[in-house]
Amino acid sequence: MTSPAERYQLARARTAHIATSLFQFEKTLGFDLDQFQRDACVCLEAGRGVLVAAPTGAGKTVVGEFAVYLALEKRLKAFYTTPIKALSNQKYSELCAVYGVERVGLLTGDTSINPDAAVVVMTTEVLRNMLYANSDTLDDLGYVVMDEVHYLADRFRGAVWEEVIIHLPSDVRLVSLSATVSNAEEFGAWLDTVRGHTDVVVSEHRPVPLWQHVMVGQNLMDLFAGDVAFDEAAPAGAEAGAADRYEVNPELLDLANSETRLNQRSGWGAGGPRRGRGPAKRPPQAVSRVRRASRPQVISALDRDGLLPAITFIFSRNGCEAAVSQCLDAGLWLTTEPEREIIARRVDEAAVDLPPEDLAVLGFWEWREGLIRGFSAHHAGMLPTFKEVVEKLFAMGLVKAVFATETLALGVNMPARSVVLEKLDKFNGEAHVNVTAGEYTQLTGRAGRRGIDVEGHAVVLWQPGTDPGAVAGLASRRTYPLNSSFRPTYNMSINLMAQFGQDRSREILETSFAQFQADRSVVGLAKQVRTREESLKGYQQSMTCHLGDFTEYSKLRRELSDLEDTAAKTTSRSKRSAAASSLEMLRPGDVIDVPAGRIQGYAVVLSADTSREPRPTVLTEDKQIRRIGVQDLGGPLEVLSHIRIPKNFNARSPKDRKDLGSSLRNALHDKRPPRRGAASRDGFHTAVTDRQEAAIAELRRRLRAHPCHGCSDREQHARWAERWWKLRRETDRLAGQIRGRTNTIAKTFDRVSDVLLHYGYLQDTPSGATVTPAGRKLRRVYGEKDLLIALSLEHGAFDGLDAADTAALASVLVYQAKREERGLRPKMPSTALDPSIDVVIRQWSALTDLEEQFKLPVTGEPELGLVWPMHKWARGKALQAALSGTELAAGDFVRWTKQVIDLLDQLAKIDDLPPGQRRLCIEAIGLIRRGVVAYSAIGD
Q1: Considering only 28-32, 137-141, 914-918, which range has the smallest mean pLDDT?
Q2: Which of 229, 336, 496, 797 could be disulfide-bonded to 839 (CB atoms 3.0-4.6 Å)?
Q3: Rounded-to-integer distance, Cα 626 and Cα 239, Å
Q4: DSSP secondary-structure letter at 481?
């Protein structure tokens, strides 16, 4: 029983709540708010900013929707920003359903719908560009919602989030929505510093419990021995593994142990070095006592246990498409007859405007068949419209199984009953890496649909080498720190200088989250330095020797050890240098043997490369076109033979590759000699220098002559001395980190400014550096190659081109090929493009030299892989014809074409651009915004 006073206070609180905007907002919802949602909304109504960190599916977007409600109530504007276009499209549709299409707008890189509306959904880059352009659209802006704000940790695009947070007008209330991060308080403290009063609301609770499983064969087994849901296995701030608190299922541990013993007996993992000239012998594959279930069998098993709909994460687009094909071939059906009719109708409605001749190249019929059966792929290579249809049908419960890449985990509202992870490692573009605890949480967070499912299920597929303890460790850690990826770019720096001048710009950059984190870490580092200095004094006393100065003696030992290490490194460097020289000496037709690495085996050189870091293009034994670099070699290459490459050889033709591969094998079989002057391993010196050998010998003599060398306790003193030197190095390293982290962002800004001064985009004046007319053009160019684009424009790369050539050249400045797609420079589709491409490549080469000189990240290499498809498309060719001869997916082509449109639109809006070039940019946009590209205007 509550007291009369308590009941009175409760009544007063209820009365006060009825008078709030939050009460009116709650009446529009069909559910009660959770406590964290209510707390965040109260902060917002009180006029404060708010950071909400909560698990996926917890409903944090309600807080953003309340910000929109408050803005409309106060007759102010609200911007709702997202990291990807698919999220923007989804949010736009949701807000239109609530407030009507006349009050909601959408702005993405290539789409503009009702941009002056009171509520505008946009990608974060669009808002950043508005802020730098002082757009009138910012007038009367009251609230900005930054959905998925943890994206600021992204190393490629994350800086944009910080730019927006720093530059938004101070009277704009900011709502930051984040996944559960372990340093929410630190991020909130920074927001409080740069944005004013900001409250942090953190919820660790999942509204739908998540259960962890391992699928062994076709049987689903619990990961933990008891009834342990996610909130229990991974409590707030959990650092330790689940095995420390909960018992891992002993059946899984027994299976793992028995497989380990089985593999040890079979010699798995014991592959030896390659011997002789024969093909490398592969080490035996890991074996398992369990027959792994096929993808159709996994889906069938989940269906049998009532765990559909499910998302299966496969870290490969090809894998997603293969999964759909396998399910089709297996005759899998997950839908009822009425469901099939609805799906067929929805799919046909979505495709009604697609050009009929493009349906085959888009993979439409296979996609349609899979959907009708209840399953589909979902990845960035798909047509945006196709992905939207999949998302809607999945949300309606009509599609029961989706095979997706990890991009689906980023905010797109596609919750499922179950999430399946095929593997716990992925390729990140550079190497195969393990899935982190944060990524595991993000991926499995899709499981469990609020208001539909009583519980969600995370399933990891058993495969040889699976460690149940490691899986339990992933499931029990929620360490997902938010670390800034912010660094000044050329465009950011030039815009800051234009608006605030050099000194004020440096001050603004020092308010970034990156500098905030660096400054905080300095406090801890300084404490560590003080502690280590005390320990060094103790070590100094312990290594005192009665025969002489042991510090001097240990220094000689250390110098000797360092010199021996240097000699070893010299040998390694000389091997790398010899490898580079041997690569430089290669000529087309040379037959080589790559002793190890990813392209191990025999290959024939297709094109030479004499640049500073040579990477000649070769055809391997298995008829693959690859580029080989120093990192692929352990020393110099030897040319074994030489063959003639036909003048009309086409690297894209499978027949030409097969014929040349046969010539390669014949040359080796016949033992044809290499050409005269070809590289030989005997011609390279990789030994230690005479000077180094002499220095090593002298140090050894001095060491033996030192008085301490005869001490009976010498080795005991030496152990203390070794500890002293090791701690001294660590202490000096920490002191260097302190120096390096002080004003790090401002120092990078100064180096960026030096590059801009070199190119004349800035000029020195008595009052500081100011922006030149050329610099004003750079202000309106946004992208990873911003300065290269501006330099190419300035040096005439776009001169003398027609509209189709202009589109093709723009593709060179935005396209990013996968590493394995890079190869020979293709012949250009028009003679006018050759000199333009030469200008771009020359400017890129000079720019990267300058960036290395100023210790800045180098600008990415211009890519030519989209030139032909873009030129054909601009000339009016059908999609199939445009993509012929390439391995580019239709969805990728649409996505890159939109980025080309975005760049051309940026160039057309540059104030000082010659009218002829502006006309060509606009004409080029018209030529390529057609067919599936125009049809997918709202997408991806």
Answers
A1: 28-32
A2: 797
A3: 43
A4: -
Over its C-alpha atoms, the chain yields an Rg (Å, rounded) of 32
**135-152: pLDDT as tens digits:** 888 999 999 999 988 888
Residue-level pLDDT at 375: 94
Proportion of the chain above pLDDT 90, given as a percent: 30
Tokens of 297: 């069998």
Predicted confidence (pLDDT) at residue 449 exceeds the cutoff of 90: no
The two three-digit tokens of residue 337, written as one number: 């007859």
pLDDT, tens digit, for every residue of 156-194?
Answer: 788 889 989 999 998 999 999 987 778 889 999 999 988
Contact assessment for residue 528 and residue 771, using Cβ atoms and an 8 Å cutoff:
no
Residue ranges of E strands in 717-799: 762-763, 770-771
Cβ of 381: how many Cβ atoms within 10 Å? Answer: 20
Identify the residue whose tokens are 């070809």: 678
Q: Single out the residue of 229, 681, 139 nearest to residue 448, CA to CA.
A: 229
Angle CA 132–149–139, to nearest 5: 35
User: How is residue 369 written in tokens?
Assistant: 């068949």
DSSP H or E run through 593: strand 590-594
875/660 Cα distance (integer angstroms): 33
Q: Do the Cβ atoms of 554 and 699 come closer than 8 Å?
A: no
Phi, psi of 719 (to 5 degrees): -65, -45
Q: How far is CA 636 from CA 585, 587, 630, in A?
A: 11, 15, 9
Quote the tokens at residue 584. Answer: 């430089």
For the chain, give the percent of residues with pLDDT over 70.
86
The pLDDT tens digits of the residues spanning 674-716 come to 877 665 555 445 455 667 777 777 777 777 778 777 777 777 7
From the list 910, 809, 804, 918, the residue with the least C-alpha distance to 863 is 809
In the numeric block, the tokens 């580079």 are attached to 580
Two tokens, residue 499: 């608006």
Q: How far apart are the first and last CA of the chain?
A: 56
Q: How far apart are CA 607 and CA 590, in angstroms?
A: 10
Q: How far apart are CA 568 and CA 689, in angstroms?
A: 11
**Residue ranges of E strands in 155-250:** 173-178, 198-202, 210-216, 219-222
Residue, of 477 and 935, whose pLDDT is higher: 935
In one letter, which amino acid is 641? S
* Least confidently predicted of 132-136, 296-300, 308-312: 132-136
Helix, strand, coil shares, percent, the chain, to 5 = 50, 10, 35
Dihedral, 435, 439, 443, 444 alpha carbons, nearest 10: 90
Q: Which residue has the tokens 């608190």?
A: 245
Query: Regarding beta strands 219-222 and 375-378, do their DSSP bridges make them parallel or antiparallel, or are they unpaired?
Result: unpaired
Angle between helices 384-395 and 337-350 (to 10 degrees): 150
